[in-house]
From TrEMBL:
Catalytic EC class: isomerase
GN (gene name): murI
E.C. number: 5.1.1.3
Protein name: Glutamate racemase
Species annotation: Lachnospira multipara
Catalysis: reaction(s): L-glutamate = D-glutamate
Function according to Swiss-Prot or TrEMBL: Provides the (R)-glutamate required for cell wall biosynthesis.
Pfam families attached to this UniProt entry: Asp_Glu_race (PF01177)
GO MF term list: glutamate racemase activity
Keyword field contains Isomerase: yes
SUPFAM superfamilies: Aspartate/glutamate racemase
InterPro entries (UniProt xref): Asp/Glu/hydantoin_racemase, Asp/Glu_race, Asp/Glu_racemase_AS_1, Glu_race
Length: 263
């Protein structure tokens, strides 16, 4: 069967990477809207229009389940998408619940894009689980651009992170929630900036497990039919990636994500 993954850019590869581990048997179609990235500073209306186009593209490719591997897209567009398309649409949300459960006597920092940070979806999630007011939300829009430019280390990245976090005492935090799938590329840098005992959480494993459960529970595929290894195709804003150099670049991004899984 075919599963479509959408993100504004390369961040969603982190969700795809995890899903390919949990559910290697299906055929994946990954769509990154690189013509319009970043989404985190656009209007809700513009985001919805762009995401709807991409999801329509994936549905036309025969995808039977769609995963929004983008916190911003999930925040802005998942409800109208579920109303429009009669197939499962799975979203991702910041891992606030486990972070609050694990933080003990320290605080939780949620890094997100401006849209995710300001919209009611995240605020309601925090209100539901943060009963002791331990969560701080920090918009980090510059990280998306840095990720898209493959700037995963170096002075510009470190200066941006230090400036964005200048008003926070990082020793107060035991949990760092990566509320944008692009942020997974920077886990090794975050590990250098935050205290040694910082725990970094994202929603990728939860989404991947949910995807597997959805496929089985909706009867799209029986569990015993999940055999062998599927394939993956990559698209940048409607364009299939077939260039060998760009495919090698995507392979290198997967390798970086694999290394960061251990952090």
């Amino acid at each position: 069967m075919k599963v479509g993954f959408f993100d504004s850019g390369i961040g969603g590869l982190s969700t795809l990477h995890q899903s390919m581990k949990v559910l290697p048997e299906v055929d994946y179609y990954f769509y990154a809207d690189t013509d319009h990235v970043p989404y985190g500073e656009k209007s809700i209306e513009e985001i919805r229009k762009l995401v709807d186009h991409a999801v329509g593209f994936l549905v036309d490719k025969g995808c039977e389940v769609i995963v929004l591997a983008c916190n911003t897209a999930t925040t802005a567009a998942i409800t109208p998408l579920r109303n429009k398309y009669k197939i499962p649409v799975i979203g991702i949300e910041p891992a606030v619940k486990p972070a609050v459960a694990h933080c003990k006597d320290k605080r939780v920092m949620v890094m997100a894009t401006p849209v995710t940070a300001k919209e009611p979806k995240l605020k309601n999630l925090i209100l539901k689980y943060d009963l002791e007011n331990k969560v701080d939300v920090v918009p980090m829009p510059g990280l998306v651009r840095l990720a898209q430019n493959d700037e995963f280390s170096g002075d510009r990245l470190l200066n941006y992170i230090h400036n964005a976090l200048a008003d926070y005492n990082l020793a107060d935090y035991s949990q760092l929630v990566l509320g944008c799938t692009h942020f997974n590329y920077f886990k090794d840098t975050f590990a250098k900036v935050f205290p040694n005992d910082i725990e970094m959480l994202d929603g990728n494993l939860g989404v991947s497990n949910h995807l597997r459960e959805t496929i089985i529970n909706t009867g799209l595929v029986k569990e015993e039919e999940l055999v062998g290894r599927g394939s993956v195709e990559y698209y940048y804003s409607d364009r299939k990636i077939e260039d060998g150099e760009e495919l090698e670049h995507i392979k290198a991004l997967h390798q970086r994500l694999e290394r960061n899984l251990k952090l």
